[in-house]
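Narrative progress, year one. The postdoctoral researcher (J.K.) led the effort to move from monomer predictions toward full complexes, under supervision of the PI. The following entry was the first complex the group processed end to end, covering 220 residues in total.
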Amino acid sequence: MIKVLFFGPIAAATGEREVSVAHVPGMTLGSLKETLTAQYPEAMHLATMMAVNGEHARDLALPLADNSEMAFMAKFSGG
Amino acid sequence: MKEAVRIQQEDFSQDKEVAALKGSSKRIGGIATFLGCARDFSEGREVSAISFDAYGSMALSELNRLRSDAIEKFGLLDARIVHRIGTVRGGDNIVFIAAGAEHRVAALEACRWMIDELKQRVPIWKKEITPQGESWVTPHP
């Protein structure tokens, strides 16, 4: 399974802070994003940043290992 | 001595943070600080409170990396960063950054660089709570 985390405006838009997505062979950051966009189109529209296992990720072709922790994040507004 | 980089709900003491920074090295000749605090007015409306959400583990990791990067980039002797989460009200402290260097230029430039980078790199989000409702903040450039 892939653990997907939502925070701030995206958590508000999805109504969830965490969802699990079944891992499939060949899964990439991009394919997971497509899956979630179909499920949460408004929320994922806000997702301009991504992280895999707590590290910034930008390459949609990045393969995702099973048990990864993903975050799709809106633009940060701390400080 | 508290950690040099922290994310916490409770308020912080600027005096204690600066004292901790000064205590780290007697070679420090200049300390620059930035204090971010909550405004009670934004985009033409009253703000009752600001609520922060964070990807805690990643935010702490990014803040620690930010401090290390600043120390290396500007040749700092030490730096400290504290960011609050939870809910704050107008006038409350939000974030404190302090940079200590042998000379003022490095300290001032590093302090400015750290708050600018924090806004780009650290997964924290703020929501303004107003009498008319709540809204997540769209970042300023």
